[in-house]
Design brief:
By secondary structure, the chain is an alpha+beta fold. It has helices at 43-51, 55-58, 62-83, 89-114, 118-133, 151-162, 167-174, 196-203, 236-261; strands spanning 2-6, 9-13, 32-36, 39-42, 139-148, 185-190, 210-216, 219-230.
């Protein structure tokens, strides 16, 4: 038996369970599963309840979740019906805030998702490229490094490099940071992305050259310059996620602006002492 909690209510999911047979017709979100004092509980209610569960419970088999979820909704409905009209002022205000936030977030989510058409993404990318190409190109570097704790260790590894050892192999075996698994590769980076000592080093090197030991606040480095290039606009796939986030953020803000600009708003909080925010006892008056 597995017990879990949702909305403060604990119930059990029995794995050995056969859900009651529904009508032969294909169920829809409006298919009624139970009625409590005239209030219907539908497939849609159960699906939404499942989506709000923690991840570890959403992955449980359907036959272990179905009846417990339906029964939970039945119990919640019965309690809700009995408790209607009994909320304290604090509880009523909390309910109003949650309702306000849910509806507002749903509206903003719809607006944000509607902005993610391929046409909008391509237009945003075109504007990004135009802006990027308007900047002066700057140098970018592709480098690898090995970082160890002491200068002695770095000198010993430098001697192995001088004797023909492979840089990536030494990095995987000896380097202390997360880049070790990739042979010490740091990928491409521009000016300002690295600490000054490292940036100055790669600017002074030729492609294929290694340098070190180089001391920084993180330890002792051996540095290999793999390649250089001048900055250019990245491909769409490289910036798609960032563009989508920007489109969604801008669409949500536009929806907020549209709603507030079209609303009749009377503000009366000017002059009120902000310290009242700390007086939670007012909720209980």
């Amino acid at each position: 038996m597995v017990s879990f909690s949702r909305s403060g209510i604990v119930f059990a999911a029995f794995c050995a369970f056969s859900p009651p047979a529904l009508a032969e017709a294909e169920p829809t979100r409006d298919t009624v599963l139970a009625i409590v004092n005239g209030t219907e509980i539908t497939v849609g209610h159960v699906l939404t309840a499942r989506e709000s569960l923690p991840e570890q419970f959403r992955t449980m088999p359907a036959d272990a979740l179905f009846e417990p979820l339906v029964e939970q909704l039945i119990e919640q409905t019965a309690i809700m019906q009995e408790a209607e009209g009994t909320l304290s002022p604090r509880e009523q205000i909390a309910f109003e805030n949650e309702q306000r936030a849910f509806i507002a977030n749903a509206a903003l989510t719809r607006a944000a998702n509607a902005a993610l058409s391929e046409e909008n993404i391509e237009a945003a990318y075109a504007a990004f490229v135009t802006e990027f190409d308007g900047r002066e190109p700057t140098p970018e570097f592709n480098a690898s490094h090995i970082i160890v704790e002491t200068e002695e260790e770095a000198l010993a590894l430098r001697a192995q490099l001088d004797e023909g050892a492979d840089f990536a192999d030494l990095a995987r075996e000896h380097s202390l940071d997360g880049a070790a698994a990739g042979g010490g590769s740091l990928g491409w980076f521009g000016l300002g992305a690295m600490i000054p000592e490292f940036e100055q080093a790669v600017q002074s090197m030729d492609v294929g050259e290694y340098l070190g030991p180089l001391e920084t606040q993180f330890g002792w480095h051996l540095v290999l310059l793999n390649d250089t290039r001048m900055s250019a606009a990245p491909e769409l796939d490289e910036v798609r996620e960032a563009l989508e986030q920007t489109l969604q953020r801008e669409a949500a803000q536009a929806e907020l602006d549209r709603a507030t600009e079209g609303a009749m708003i009377e503000r009366s909080y000017e002059g009120l002492d902000p310290a009242m925010l700390m007086r939670s006892e007012l909720l209980d008056d």
